[in-house]
Specification:
The structure holds two protein chains of two kinds. By secondary structure, chain A is of the alpha/beta class. Chain A folds into two domains: 217 residues, 3-Layer(aba) Sandwich (Rossmann fold); 65 residues, Alpha-Beta Plaits. Chain A contains eleven helices and 14 strands. A four-stranded mixed β-sheet of chain B has the order 2-1-3-4, with helices on both faces. The mean pLDDT of chain B is 86. Chain B has two domains: 240 residues, no CATH class; 107 residues, abc type-2 transporter like domain (abc type-2 transporter like fold), CATH 3.40.1710. The longest helix of chain B has 30 residues. The chains are: A alpha/beta, B alpha/beta.
Chain lengths: 319, 377
Amino acid sequence: MTPSMAPESNAVEIRDLVKRFGSFVAVDHVNLEVQRGEIFGFLGPNGAGKSTTIRMLCGLLKPTSGSATVGGLDISSQSEAVKQNIGYMSQRFSLYDDLSVEENIDFFSGIYSVPRDRRAARKDYVLRMAGIEERRSSLTGLLSGGWKQRLALGCAILHEPPILFLDEPTSGVDPIARRTFWDLIYQLSAAGNTVFVSTHYMDEAEYCHRLALMYRGKVIALGTPAELKASLSHHNLFHLEVSDLLGGMNALEKVPGLSDIAVFGGGLHVTAADADRAVPEMRSALEQAGISAPMLEAIQPSMEDVFVAMIEEEERKVA
Amino acid sequence: MSLRRLKAVTRKELLHIVRDARSLALALALPLVMLLLFGYALTLDVDRIPTYVYDQDRTPESRALIDQFRGSRYFQIREAISSYQAADRGIDKSTVLLSLVVPRYYSRHLLAGDEADVQLLVDGSDSNTASIALGYADAVIESFSAQLRSDAQVQRGGQPLRVPVDPRIRVWYNSDLKSKNFIVPGLIAVTMMIIASMLSSLTIAREWENGTMEQLLSTPVRPGELVLGKLLAYFALGLADMAISIVVGVFVFQVPFRGNAWFLLFTSCLFLFGALSWGIFLSASARSQLMAFQMGMLSSFLPGYLLSGFIYSIYNMPKIIQLVSYLVPARYFVTILNGVFLKGVGFRILWLEVLMLAAYAGLVFWGASRKMRLKVA
């Protein structure tokens, strides 16, 4: 059975979505569109409203106002149909520890009503995908973190849903398991599935096709990783290696037009408003202080720089 | 309602039950322990009443009276005492319940054909037992004096005295008047009420605590399917408990079983369904296992014990409490069990109770499913 979706619609469309808990606004008029087949990343600090948004899209929470469609189906009026079309993985591991790997798969296969003739094939696929064919009859609670994660993903896609919601799926697993997990996400995306994933790992953000940066319930930036970095082009970032870190910081602080001077590894990171003027000014300031700078170069901002800069900008707006 | 999903939920729940060996053992041992404990400890029969005798008269006549007490199975003479202080102490320390004082000149009054008094000192702090004990003592003394009067008549060469009215008593249903015959069936109802709501009270709260509920809610499984699926799994366990209870009742306590076994099975199912639904309702309301468990214990044990009519007769309660007792499903099941075990009656007599159990089960199941649905928002 291929789940029915309205053709030609975006995988996810969010219109003015709001969720209030008492006086706290967890999600504040969010608007988003996610195209089919996309890996869409949801970035933001803890408590920014990422999980709340995802839970509304999965029908676990009712929106206070606004609307959204998932696979062309309205999340409020067609939530039962939405559930047939999605796979969801929550932050917490949510399989049954006291059931074996196979029993967990069988259970979810049952409640997703996977057709009888597809069941064996789907089970094999999940076991293979998670790499736990040999441990199929061991208790799930005894598996290591990475295996559990992949099994949870497998159970969420038993019914071959076209849209996947993954809420910080890789929190608490080691880097290798994370990499393996992302390989699976790429495979799913390549097969035409839409993957909506939230994370606060910056390296994972770079893996996404498009990103939304969420902060205090609002989407404050939206675009491809390259676009987001480009939007920071007025921030010229320099990396300096100096003979005296503290002295260097003090010297650079006196230079007008420099901001965000911070120790970064063994050197300094500095943001300048005007790159052409900043380089000679920095050199002369350091020279006057008697500090040598064997390295001074402009660098590409990382996703983390973008993230921090945008949140700081947002903070300045509020203040 | 999808059968596939229902089956998946029930299967999963049965696996949980089987995997948790300790809880399973507890669930199966509990009815046994409760029945044996309550069944033996909770006896309302008053016999072998510990008694002191204070014989001030010391004559063959006084000894004859005391022998009447000694011969009765209702009394057990602990000691012959020789002062009122000893009688006082015995009652204060609860070593005896009753002291029989035969005053001096008892035999002289008796032989003279005058009224001969004897004194009974009784510990009235447990008024129920005290009045039963006094009743027995009265009866012993009464029959003894009737005997004496009759003997005296014969000695004077007359006919044995005829008692004007002689009641011929026949007790129906529990002809031995053994309290266990009436306690044990009621106990089964109360035990099952407690076990059923305890078993199921954890099941949904556990899913909330472990975060698995979050996953379930994102799937197409419906609240009603979840509630019914879980219920069916515990139903199997509940029926096993029921069977254990009945076997213990009939074979260990020798309670007569006079009714129809199918009727008993049918009503047990109805009752279990309601009691399990109640546990699930609590579980869906509480979200924490501890809270659900405590609410389950409190709401099943107290009303089941006090308001079901299993020991305490509902007729004697104040009107308002009688009304409350109509809300306690155990009340109907106690009536049904007593009816089936002791009276051998069935649906024709007990239809109202059966109907009430069915209504309760339906209502609470609906409530539990609804509660699950509301929790989603």
